[in-house]
Write a structure and sequence with these properties.
Layout: E1 2-5, H1 11-23, E2 27-32, E3 37-42, E4 59-63, E5 83-85, E6 88-90, E7 96-100, H2 107-120, E8 124-126, H3 144-157, E9 161-164, H4 168-175, E10 180-183, H5 191-200, E11 204-207, H6 214-225, E12 232-236, H7 255-262, E13 267-269, H8 271-275, H9 278-290, E14 295-299, H10 317-333
Parallel strand pairs: 7-8, 7-14, 8-9, 9-10, 10-11, 11-12, 12-13, 13-14
Antiparallel strand pairs: 1-3, 1-4, 2-3, 5-6
The structure holds phosphoenolpyruvate (PEP) and manganese (II) ion (MN).
Phosphoenolpyruvate binds near residues 102, 128, 132 and 237.
Length: about 350
């Protein structure tokens, strides 16, 4: 539930409401908006009618949060959340482009990719070191060596890094090398992993499960938030539908405004896995920015024909550079920068 404070509620009144909430054994989450201050409470199971907190000075009303996700809900936190990674703010005015290869394959490949994405204006470098692959015989990434290469490039180019973690055991190592922990589509409902990245306090990019609903995505985010980690970025990356002949997944563009309405968390779109074909990545990216995405996660490979994973959906550097020019125009048209 949330306690809505009266318009001119004083600091003393706010502090005393928080104190009362904590005395009752609940956790209070303060959220200051331009208009109103609200205090969210998790764990209250008393009926709201005639609730003792409603009678405290400065309180206007008590409202239930009807969604099953609470901390992720916009009722709980009416303003947009911004997740900051060094100087990069995800969820602010600037659309944040995260780009790089699907997997880190070698020092040369990563450097080549990182330099070109940075030159074209990407704000974050992506690259997988632990790769979840549908086949046990496919390339599974360089593991720790891949993380070390990412850290090397991050330091030299000053680009924050996003990379996937697949198990709780990888979290401690990965936070030493990367800025954002990616939870892949296959692990969106790996609750032990969600809790571990929650405990780490590190920024998290949570991808939507390929067969998950928006509500399930928000409930997975809730697992991370419930550990006290509020640095959660959501990612729409396409879902499995009946049409798999021409596209790998069906990119759910409508999920962007829907999530924006339901939640305060930033939303990033992955047009690479969303389409599975580099030819459609541009259109999907432009649509995502136009629909209000706070960022994009795009696969770029210096030589896609030689890629060890996801070459078919990876943009060449020139195509990425051209796309960035187009995206700047779309961003501008919807009141954003890029
Ligand atoms: C990836 O980003 O390379 C990846 C494996 O993504 P997803 O989990 O969405 O398939
Ligand atoms: Mn990939």
């Amino acid at each position: 539930m949330v306690i809505v404070m009266k318009k001119g509620a004083t600091e003393a009144q706010i502090a005393s409401v928080i104190q009362r909430v904590e005395d009752l054994g609940y956790q209070a989450h303060l959220s200051r908006g331009e208009e109103r201050t609200i205090i969210g409470i998790i764990g209250n199971d008393r009926p709201l009618v005639d609730h003792p907190l409603a009678r405290l000075d400065g309180v206007e009303s008590i409202v239930p949060i009807l969604h099953p996700f609470k901390l992720a809900s916009r009722d709980f936190h009416p303003e947009d959340s911004v997740v900051s990674i060094d100087s990069v703010a995800v969820g602010g005015e600037r659309v944040i482009v995260m780009a790089g290869p699907c997997a880190v394959e070698s020092r040369e490949q990563l450097w080549e990719a990182a330099v070109v994405v940075k030159e074209s204006g990407a704000a974050v470098l992506r690259g997988g070191a632990f790769k979840p692959r549908s086949s046990p015989y496919s390339f599974h990434g360089l593991g720790q060596e891949g993380l070390e290469l990412l850290a090397e490039v991050r330091l030299a180019l000053g680009l924050p890094v996003v990379t996937e973690v697949m198990s709780p055991a990888e979290v401690a190592l990965t936070i030493r090398h990367a800025d954002i922990l990616q939870i892949g589509t296959r692990n969106m409902q790996n609750y032990a992993l969600l809790q571990e990245v929650g405990r780490s306090g590190h920024p998290v990019l949570l991808k939507r499960g390929m067969m998950s609903t928006i509500e399930e995505l928000l409930l997975s985010a809730e697992y991370i938030l419930a550990q006290g980690n509020h640095k959660v970025i959501l990612c729409e990356r396409g879902i499995r539908t009946f049409d798999v002949k021409y596209t790998r997944n069906t990119l759910d563009i409508a999920a962007i405004p829907v999530i924006k309405k339901l939640s305060h968390l930033p939303v990033v779109v992955d047009p690479s896995h969303g389409t599975g074909n580099w030819e459609y990545v541009g259109a999907a990216s432009r649509a995502a920015v136009a629909a209000g995405a706070d960022g994009l996660l795009i696969e770029v490979h210096p030589h896609p024909e030689k890629a060890l994973s996801d070459g078919a959906q990876s943009l060449r550097p020139e195509a990425f550079a051209q796309l960035m020019v187009e995206l700047r125009l779309v961003a501008q048209a919807v009141g954003r920068t890029l």
